[in-house]
Specification:
- Residues 1-28 form the HTH crp-type domain.
- This is ROK family transcriptional regulator.
- Belongs to the ROK (NagC/XylR) family.
- InterPro entries: ATPase_NBD, HTH_CRP, ROK, ROK_cs, WH-like_DNA-bd_sf, WH_DNA-bd_sf.
- Pfam families: Crp, ROK.
- By secondary structure, the chain is α/β, with parallel strands linked by helices.
- It contains 11 helices and 15 strands.
- It has helices at residues 3-10, 14-26, 93-107, 144-152, 161-171, 231-234, 236-247, 252-278, 289-292, 295-306, 327-341; strands at 30-35, 46-50, 56-61, 67-73, 79-86, 114-121, 124-125, 130-134, 139-143, 156-160, 179-184, 188-194, 197-198, 282-286, 317-320.
- Helix 7 packs antiparallel against helix 8.
- The two termini are 18 Å apart.
- The mean pLDDT is 90.
Length: 344
């Protein structure tokens, strides 16, 4: 927009806006794009915009099943460069050292001043960036934000990976103001947006549906110690394990279909009370399309709608996220963008 447009939008004088814009240009945060092509009396206004490539952000994704990933992103969430490291067999404190080194290596790939580092991690994360518990990583009360800030000297934002993914879908994707995004990877979690704001909950655990028991008919033993948790049906390792077992049956195709349908049904059982209580309009699944698309997605949609108050048209849509592979990296960058520049 032009300086005049900005003046009208903010209710500030043109002189004040011009001074502020000049300061932002000198600091590298704003650029001039050329004259507006709008036809109006007088001299065409000079369009200004955020310098979307003048600052960069490091995003980190610790939620994949076999690797931890990092990327340098511009302010539009586009990935400039990326790297990944295989998880070792270590967990707990030994794993923290790998995360710190990954952050340093990612910073070295930046080609513009860095705004900060955003991290999406499994588990419950407090507003202060403390990983209260991440059983899949062997972490309990790990102050990941302060550890990374001390190690890198950069501002750091740490979020649950599913919440970060929800931020990505809302900021850079097609997500609406009332949605739940279910992130399916090493574990199962979700991020919830209500009225355009992320829901945290009383203990920062809103959306932690992975260890909700789905059904009363038993199921597999979960690593948390309970039986029949959603993760035992829907996590990527569980889905892949069950598909391998189906491949060894007398009718592999029918067995695989039945397994995927059962997983979709169980997911819907967990989601229906959440969707109904919060009156959400969208359910977005983020994970490997080869596992989620087709039978599982159809079963989840059918069972969810059957458990909600019948309305025409259907009160909620169920779909896959468009960019599941990079969604946590982009969501982590959106957290930094909002925290450091107030852009959401």
């Amino acid at each position: 927009m032009s300086r005049a447009d900005l003046s009208r939008a903010l209710g500030l004088t043109r002189v004040t806006v011009s001074d502020l814009v000049l300061d932002l240009i000198e600091r590298g945060h704003v650029v001039e794009l050329g004259h507006s092509d709008k036809i109006r009396p007088g001299k065409p206004g000079m369009l200004i915009d955020l310098n979307r490539r003048g600052l960069q952000i490091v995003g980190m994704d610790l939620a994949e099943t076999s690797v931890m990933r990092a990327a340098v992103l511009d302010l539009d969430g586009n990935i400039v460069s990326r790297l990944e490291r295989s998880f070792t067999e270590e967990s707990g404190e030994a794993l923290i050292g790998q995360v710190l080194q990954l952050a340093r290596d990612a910073m070295a790939l930046s080609t513009a001043p860095l705004l900060g580092i955003g991290v999406g991690t499994p588990g419950i994360v407090s507003p202060e960036g403390i990983v209260v518990e991440a059983s899949n990583l062997g972490w309990k009360n790990v102050n990941l934000r302060d550890l990374l800030q001390d190690h890198t000297g950069m501002p750091v934002l740490v979020s649950n990976d599913a919440a970060a993914a929800a931020h990505a879908e809302y900021t850079f994707g097609d997500g609406g103001d009332n949605m739940i995004l279910v992130k399916i990877g090493r574990g199962v979690g979700s991020g919830i947006i209500v009225g355009g704001e992320r829901v945290r909950g009383a203990h920062s655990g809103a959306g932690e549906i992975g260890h909700v028991t789905v059904g009363t008919d038993g199921g597999a033993l979960c690593k948390c110690g309970k039986t029949g948790c959603l993760e035992t049906w829907m996590s990527v390792p569980s889905l892949e394990k069950n598909l391998r077992e189906a491949a060894g049956s007398s009718d592999p195709e029918a067995s695989a279909r039945a397994m995927l349908q059962a997983a979709g049904d169980r997911l819907a059982v967990a989601l229906a009370p959440v969707v109904g209580a919060l009156d959400l309009s969208e359910v977005v699944l983020s994970g490997p399309a080869q596992l989620l698309d087709g039978v599982l997605l159809d079963a989840a949609r059918r069972t969810l709608l059957s458990r909600l108050l019948r309305q025409e048209p259907a009160p909620v849509s169920v779909r896959l996220a468009a960019d599941a592979h990079d969604i946590v990296l982009r969501g982590a960058s959106a957290l930094v963008l909002g925290n450091q520049l107030g852009v959401a």
